[in-house]
Amino acid sequence: MQEGLLIVISGPSGVGKNTIISNLFSKLPNLSYSISATTRNPRPNEIHGKHYYFMAEADFLEKIAAAEFLEWAKVYQYYYGTLKSEVMKKLCAGQDVILDVDVQGALQIKKSFPKAVLIFLAPPSLKALRDRLVGRQTESEQQIEERLKYITTEFQHAPEYDYFIINNEIDLTCSQIECIIQAEKCRTIRLESGCMDKILHEV
User: Fold this and answer.
1) If we measure between CA atoms, which residue out of 100, 39, 111, 49 comes closest to residue 75?
2) Does 152 score more than 90 pLDDT?
3) pTM of this structure
């Protein structure tokens, strides 16, 4: 059985990551999502082991010290992270795993798991992104401007990704990512040991 593929998607807030990932799930039955760990309290209707792994800060810090996270970050007063065990369990079962993480998390993953495929999702323009953020009506004008300023920092790291996709149209973007996944699965570095020998010598 071929090991699953770890796909990491990053991009500015409002670029459409959630929509793209939801569409990919409807098209790729072998695609799985990794449940993150966090030290914040559950919100109403959130279930441990389904939405997040909720844990005490002391436990989270122990796992950081033991290098049990592929990536982690502290956002305001809470910690968030992706457990290696959660991801590897699925990859070893042949499932492809997709992660939606920020640039900082993606580069941590690239260092600890070089086989991961990193995709940077970009908007067609800053104006298009601003229109999307305004249309969501979830943030103030000041928050939107702060997000737009942060994009420059995010774009500086785009060359460190394997792929750069401009999300002009959802179906096209999903097709491009599907093509990337198919191509990555055919790369020689992912062939099982002895695969070519088996083809040459099997009668």
Assistant:
1) 39
2) no
3) 0.83
